[in-house]
Amino acid sequence: MQTIIPNTKIDEELRKETFDIDRSIDLFVEQNNRMTHPLKTEFDFLKWLDEGRLVTVGGGSGLGKTAFVLQMLYELVRDNQDREDSVIGIYASAEMMIEELTMRLIVNQEVLENVNMLNVRKIFNKKLTSPKKLEEYKNKAKFILGSIPFYFLNASKFNLNSIMQLIKKTRKKNPDKRIFVVIDYLQLLLAEVDSLPEMNRAIKALKDCVIENKANAIIISALNRDAIKNNYVDMSAFIGSSMIEYTSDIAILFAFKNDKGKYTLKIDEEKRNANELEFYAYCVKNRIGQLFSSKLIFNKLQQRFTVNPVKVITLTQEEFEKQEKSATSVTEKHDKENLKDLTFLDII
Question: Residue 83 in 3-state DSSP?
């Protein structure tokens, strides 16, 4: 039992600049009161995600990273509107036009019966569809997709600073809501950054903004060729991996299982070109829980993911040491090089 010394003087000036234990406990209680029940989502790792967290998702080209995060964010917003702390979603894309993202969401959410990636453009083409029918389709899409606080941010109108300003503004206007922001994808957003140290500072600034404004950010990150070539299924797979490793609370790679049941980043072209892809959301870092793996089935025509329940991953000491060694070697190599030297030959 600790002895309590009464009447100890608290330095009020110092208290204004820092957090004493009383204020820290108040903040802790306030945060936990805001998470009275889990978020509704089929993506298990998001259910108890508290505020101020950054999630990083990475994978090879053509595996549906955008579709994965788009579906995840939209359904997170849609399915949690009955909460006091309902969710606001902002999707910032530096890669795709808003029209493309809207089309994908129309297909993903099955706004119209039998709509898919092959016929969606024809259905919404005024030269091929009667004006009356087209108006009906548009109104139905707006009713289904536009009745919740889900927003797209046009790539031509933002950079990382403007995204951070938008997070602050959204928090100020909505003090009691959950805020989720997607950045698709990180390296394109930071394309004008000249070096990895500058890139690291930018990522750190984003994380600071997320913490300060009690928001959540989900970033899509490119992978580097060294990691794919040598099959490093760990944090070293991400470009700029040192700061991503430090700032990410959860990091997920799209991985496959080879014939021996081992996870791999490599996929043969026949499987890549198939209409339906089967792979795993493989968690390589989880600051707030256990590592996990969840089987994903991606239907390209429907732009939709089916998510299986998560399976907890337990690494042997040998596997852990191997991952640590590969992550350290690749990270050190990349941190010595400029982003210009890496170029987009190193980006999948």
Answer: coil
| Three-class secondary structure of residue 252 per DSSP | strand
CA atoms within a 13 Å half-sphere pointing along the CA-CB vector of 94: 20
Q: Burial-class residue 300 by CB neighbours within 10 Å (0-12, 13-18, 19+).
A: middle
User: pLDDT per residue over 185-242, tens digit each?
Assistant: 888 888 777 777 888 888 999 999 999 999 999 999 989 888 888 888 999 899 776 7
Residue 222 and residue 56: Cα distance in Å, rounded? 10
Q: How many helices (H) and strands (E) does the chain have?
A: 14, 11
Cα–Cα nearest to 301, from 116, 71, 119, 129:
116
- Within a 10 A sphere around the Cβ of 329, how many other Cβ atoms? 14
C-alpha torsion 226→232→235→239, nearest 10: 20
Is the CB of residue 76 less than 8 Å from the CB of residue 88? no
Q: What is the pTM of this model?
A: 0.85
Q: How many other C-beta atoms can be found within 10 angstroms of the C-beta atom of residue 193?
A: 20
CATH pick for 43-342 out of 3.40.50.2020, 1.10.10.60, 3.40.50.1000, 3.40.50.300: 3.40.50.300
